Amino acid sequence: MSISCDDNNIKIWDTENWECILDINNIYKEGDLYSACFIKEKDNIYIATSNRNKEGDSEKIKIFNFYGQNIQELDNSNENTLFLDSYFDKKSSKNYIISANFGRVKSYDY
């Protein structure tokens, strides 16, 4: 389970004993954390997060590994990412990140 907080932290909880197994702090220094989702790739699990800075002129989708390390940034635009999700296409064996904004939905080939 992933919980995004107003203080820009992501926490992953073990739902059997409610122990926090991962805490990624201060993900975005200039803005608010809006959404998060998991991406499974072979034997690895990644966490995608989205934000919008306080001035409203930048959006970043950051990818973290399960050790809390930021390994990639995907986008920089003037739109608001309110919702993230991931999709695995079995036919092409590819992961996609779905980003829903005010005016459109984007898909990123991960």
Mean pLDDT across the residues is: 80
Biggest pleated-sheet summary: 4 strands, antiparallel
Secondary-structure element sequence?
EEEEEEEEEE
Give the C-alpha Rg: 14 Å
SS content category: mainly beta
How widely separated are the two ends? 22 Å
Helix content: under 10%
Q: How much of the residues is beta strand, in percent?
A: over 45%
* Morphology: globular
Number of strands: 10
- List segments where confidence is low: pLDDT < 50 over at least 5 consecutive residues: none
Strand order of the largest sheet: 4-5-6-7
What quaternary form is this? single chain
What would your notes on this structure say?
- The chain has strands spanning 2-4, 10-14, 19-24, 32-41, 44-52, 61-65, 70-73, 83-89, 94-100, 105-109.
- The chain is mostly beta strands.
- The two termini are 22 Å apart.
- The relative contact order is 0.18.
